[in-house]
Every structure is written in C-alpha cells, then in structure tokens.
Amino acid sequence: MKRFVPFVLLAVLVPAITSIVLAQQPSQATLRISAGDRPVATVTLSGQLYFNAGDVVTALGGTITPDSTGFRVTLNNVVAAFGPDSRFGVVRDDLIEMPAPPIVVDGKPYVPWQFFQGFFKRAIDNEAVWDPATRVLAVRAAQRNVVSVQASVTNVQGISKIVLSLSGPAEYGIVKQPGLYTVAFRTPIHAPFAEQSVEDPYVQKLTFAGNELRIQLSAPEVVGDAYKLENPFRIVIDFRKGAAPAPGVPPPAVSRPVDQPGIRTIVIDPGHGGKEVGAIGPSGMYEKDATLAVCRKLALSLGSKLGARVVLTRDDDSVISLDQRTAIANQYKADLFLSVHMNAAVVKGAHGSETYFLSLDASDELAKKAAEGENAVSAAAQPTTSSDLKLILWDLAQQEYLNESSKFASAIQEEMNRATGVQNRGVKQAPFKVLVGATMPAALVEVAFITNPEEESKIKSDAYQNMVVDAITRAVQRYKTDYETRIGVAQPPPAAAPATTTTTTATRTGT
Length: 511
Ligand SMILES: [Zn+2]
Hints:
Blueprint: H1 5-22, E1 27-33, E2 36-45, E3 48-52, H2 53-59, E4 63-67, E5 70-75, E6 78-82, E7 88-91, E8 94-97, E9 103-105, E10 108-111, H3 114-124, E11 126-131, E12 136-141, E13 147-156, E14 159-166, E15 172-177, E16 180-185, E17 189-190, E18 195-197, E19 203-209, E20 212-217, E21 222-229, E22 234-241, E23 265-270, H4 287-306, E24 309-312, H5 322-331, E25 336-343, E26 354-358, H6 365-381, H7 388-399, H8 402-420, E27 427-430, E28 442-449, H9 453-460, H10 462-487, E29 501-503
Parallel strand pairs: 1-12, 13-17, 23-24, 23-25, 24-29, 25-28, 26-27
Antiparallel strand pairs: 1-2, 2-3, 3-10, 4-5, 5-6, 6-7, 7-8, 9-10, 11-12, 13-14, 14-22, 15-16, 15-29, 16-20, 18-19, 19-20, 21-22, 26-28
Helix pairs in contact: 1-7, 4-10, 8-10
The structure holds zinc ion (ZN).
C-alpha cells in the first residue's frame, strides 16, 4: 500500500519552509547532560522553537537516520520515529505529542523539545527540561515518584471486578492475551505482594513483577474491559466469559507484524468521548458510551478471530480531537481505520445502519446531514486547527484509498444489513472530518439510530452489541481476505492465532 503520499507532497514544500527558517537567523542553546555542557543548534519558526535532533541524540550516544516517512532515532536500543507531517512521534507503542510537527532544515530534522521529553523517558529513564530563561536543555535522571498499588478482586452478578487503587495517577498500558492480561505501569510502583492466588470463577492469580501486574485467568475465553476512575485514581477491569476460541488454537502470537503487506493493524475509533457526548437517546443514553462498549468488544473480537493487532483510539472516557484520531492510525501505520458512531435523526422512525467513506461531496442530502451532525458536535468542543493546506494534502492522501475505502465500507454495510434485516440503507459518501487524513482505507459506521427509542434500547443489550460486533468482524475478515487475495499475499483462512490487543492511553488531550 502506498501510504507515503502526504510526506512526498510535503517534501516538495520543504525548500520553501527551509528558506523561511534560514531567514530567521539560526541560534544556539546549551545541552546539559552528565558528560557536561555542549551547544545545540535551534531555529524559531512561527514562534515555535525547534532543536537540532541530531545534535541532542548523538551527544547522548544515539543515532538518527532518515527513513521513508521521516526519521528514525535509536538510543539504548529503543527506537522512535517522527516525520514532518505529524506532531505525533512514536516510541514503541506510545505516542509522543509535540506542540508542532518537526521541520527539516538543510536535510536535518528539528523538533520541539517535548520530543526529547517523551523519548528520553522511555529510552533512558531520563527527563528533559527546557529552561527558556537560561536557554538550557537539561537531560537528567528522572525524579521518580513511586506509586503504591492495592489490588482487590470481587465477583458480582457474574462479573469479576479487579480494582487497582493507586496512591496517585500513573500511566499504564494493558496487554490482552488469551488467559493472561498484563497491566504494564510506566511509572514505578510499590506492589502490595509478589503473588496471590484468588478464589474466583475467572481470575486465578495476581503476580506483581517489576512494574507489571500479571493477571492469570481461569480460561482463554475470559475477557475483560478496563477503564480508569479518578480521585482517587483506580484502574478497574471487569472480567466475564466471552466467546469460546476455536479448538486447537495455538498460543498467542506476540510478535509484532510490521511492514508486511496485508491487513495486520486495525485502528478502531470509538466516536466522541468526555464532554463531547455525541447524540443522546430518548432515555438519556450517550452515543460516546454506546460506541465505547461496542468498540471494546470489537477490538477483542478482531484480535482473537483475525490475529490482527488492534488499537483503540480511546479505551476510556477521554476527549480526543478528530485530528488525533487519524494521527493515531497513521502513526501506528494501520492498514484499516474504522470509526464507530450511533446515528441521530430528526425523522421519526429512522432505523438501521449506515456506512460512509470519505468524499468532499455528500452522496445525498441525508448523508450531508449526518456528516454535519458528527462534524458539528466535535467542532463545538474542539475548534479545528487544521490549515487549508494541510486539509488539501490530507484529502489527497485519502483520495488514494477511496476505492479501497469504498470496498471496505460496502463489506460492512452488507454484513450489517444481513445481521439487522434492514435493507434500505446503503453505503454513502460524506465529508466526515474524522476520515480526513487517514492514509489507509477508512470508513465510518453509524451502527443504529440512538434517537429511535426502539433502537436505543437494543443498543443497550449485550445480545445486540454482540450481533453488531460479529457482523463487523465478518466484514473486516471478508475485506481482508479479498484485499490480500488481490495483492497476492492471501493467508490461510483464520481461526488463526489470536494476537495482542493494544489499547492506547497516551493520547488524551489536556482538556
Ligand atoms: Zn457520532
């Protein structure tokens, strides 16, 4: 798949940017590391200060090399990547958020100092601090706040609830494998015990090792939904029995399928979140809650049935901007992007599913209304910061995938029609902002009309959610097989290895 279009287009613009920068008089700052002080080149563009990434990284013993989408930095065997088309860098499975995208001057990459802050924390457990008054960028051992953890397990009404109570906020990720969930803390923790067996139908044993908590489950088909609560800070995982995996399933493939052709990484985007609640049903159900419930199940289903790496743009009630949602998909080099929503209608009795792919022209008046609704809800809470130039480049990027996006959307719509027995709604094109900027086949599904009382009550039920998840899983499987057959890398049909499900918690905005 060609996914380098935006960069190629931007590269054409780089000389223009460069000349602006050089007209601004390059300046110097001091890099302070344990080996002493040394100069680092900086430039200022539109009020933003950028540091020569090579100066800083090589002073610490790392390397920096250009690659097809930008630059690759290696330090202490940890690799990070960034490109001039995005203000998100990536290190391991985490995103590094910068206030502005990196720039290239005379072929050398310059980054805001926040890149070093994010990268050095993961690579060498150091913090980077910029003092604008003295113009010193200090890199030093991180001030570590140890967070103490308490764990409890209770089974209520068939759900086993693990509650991890923390003495303060902590960053963490959860790796889900059949029979084993691992909570990996990114801040040092003080564990309450090393190992404890649990009398519980679903949870067998809790083991703390280093900064990880391993949760041993009683069976591979036990699945968990995780969320966090604040004040005090708690991580909650609800375990229940999910669908049984196919017999003879091999142990999970933990290897990360990167840079192989085919559909390997799928980004699922639960619509809305936080104060941006989306549409509201007649009995008060929020679209943001319905989309998250469906997407969590969908992520597990796609991970186990397709052996795909699945990333959720949010796994809790965070506010995430539309730009960030596609940025996440691009940074994870996703092969497929699906945004999940619930429809709203002024027309009484509107029902059924609709699937969209991106077009600047809506295919009919109602499709235009749907797009206006979804775009407006977000615009109210999150003013768009995209420049026209950026939008044009992004549009061209998605233009590359219109044909594939249309095929993907059709597969979803057909399976949803088959599952719900509703035939009168089809695939549509509309200018949904969340699809703008995805450099992979992308679609948006409006699962059902949350504004219709009958559909709203269905959306609440597990049975209906599972039916939707099964239909979308079949659609993704169909599209995957079709696509891989066309490009000649068709895999043997699945029931294949379940893979890990990655959820991202590094992406919320500061609002
Ligand atoms: Zn929506």
